[in-house]
Amino acid sequence: MLRYLWLSFAVILADQGVKLWLSHIWRVGQGIVVIPGLLNFRLVHNTGAAFSFLAGAGGWQRWLLIGIALLVVVVIVAILRRLKPGSTWTAISLALILGGAVGNLIDRIRLGYVVDFIGAHWGSLYWPYFNIADSAISIGAVILVLDAFRRH
C-alpha cells in the first residue's frame, strides 16, 4: 500500500509551497480577510503543538515534538507496508496524516516553529490558526475513524 505515498508527497509540496510563498509576501501578523466573519488568512508562527499547546515552554518542546513526529512517521510507514490489498481508505487516511506530519516536521526542524495561516471563526469565536498539513492530518483522521466504523 506504499503506492499511496504520492498523496503524502502532494500534501507536503502544497503545504510547504504555500507556507514559503506566504512567508515571502507577508510578515508575521499580516493577512487578508477571505470571508468576513468566517475565514481569514494571516501569517502566524506556532512554536507549540496543536492549538499552540506548549507554545510558551521555553524551547525544549521543539525537540520533543520533532521526536514525536519522527516516531509517527516511522509507525505510519510501517503500517502502510503491512496493509493488505483492499485497505484503500486506511492507506489514503494514513498517507494524508503522514504528509501532514512531515509538512509540519519540516517547519519545526528548519525554522523552530510551524507556519500557520488559516483562521476560521464564527463572529467572535475563533478556532486556532492552522495550515494545509494540519488539514490533511484532520481529514486523514476523520477518514480513518469513518473507515473503522464502516468495516465494523
UniProtKB/TrEMBL annotation:
What's this protein's function? This protein specifically catalyzes the removal of signal peptides from prolipoproteins.
Q: Where in the cell is it found?
A: Cell membrane
TM spans (from-to): 60-80, 87-106, 126-149
Q: Which InterPro entries match?
A: Peptidase_A8 (IPR001872)
Q: Which controlled-vocabulary keywords does the entry list?
A: Aspartyl protease, Cell membrane, Hydrolase, Lipoprotein, Membrane, Protease, Transmembrane, Transmembrane helix
Q: Which reaction(s) does its UniProt entry say it catalyses? A: Release of signal peptides from bacterial membrane prolipoproteins. Hydrolyzes -Xaa-Yaa-Zaa-|-(S,diacylglyceryl)Cys-, in which Xaa is hydrophobic (preferably Leu), and Yaa (Ala or Ser) and Zaa (Gly or Ala) have small, neutral side chains
Respond yes or no to whether keyword Transferase is given for this record: no
Coarsely, its chief localization is membrane
State the annotated membrane topology for this chain: Multi-pass membrane protein
Write out the catalytic residues in the record. D116, D134
Might you give the EC number(s) for this enzyme? 3.4.23.36
Quote the protein name from its UniProt record.
Answer: Lipoprotein signal peptidase
Q: Which Pfam families match?
A: Peptidase_A8
Q: What is the lineage of its organism?
A: Bacteria, Pseudomonadati, Pseudomonadota, Acidithiobacillia, Acidithiobacillales
Q: What EC class does the entry list? A: hydrolase
Organism of origin: Acidithiobacillus sulfurivorans
Its UniProt pathway annotation is: Protein modification; lipoprotein biosynthesis (signal peptide cleavage)
Similarity comment: family membership: Belongs to the peptidase A8 family.
Q: Which GO terms describe its molecular function?
A: aspartic-type endopeptidase activity
Is Lipoprotein a UniProt keyword of this protein?
Answer: yes
